[in-house]
Design a protein that fits this description.
The protein is α+β, with helices and mostly antiparallel strands. It contains one helix and four strands. A four-stranded mixed β-sheet has the order 3-1-2-4.
Length: 61
């Protein structure tokens, strides 16, 4: 499942172990993939290395 921050719907995440994506505050976390958004560079790298754990992270706050 893809997820993104409501503050910047132009980038989405797919890896719950993404260091950028897993720092999204609970109030700003949204599930899904916004139209026209691009995949986060960190998620791209995790997928390329075969280290992506798919899913939505548990918000830290």
């Amino acid at each position: 499942m893809a997820y993104y921050t409501k503050k910047d719907p132009t980038i989405y995440h797919k890896c719950k172990n993404c260091t950028v994506g897993n720092n999204i505050e609970k109030a700003n976390l949204a599930e899904g993939q916004p139209t026209g958004a691009r995949l986060c560079k960190d998620c791209q790298e995790l997928q390329a290395k075969g280290q992506c754990t798919p899913g939505t992270p548990s918000p830290a706050f």
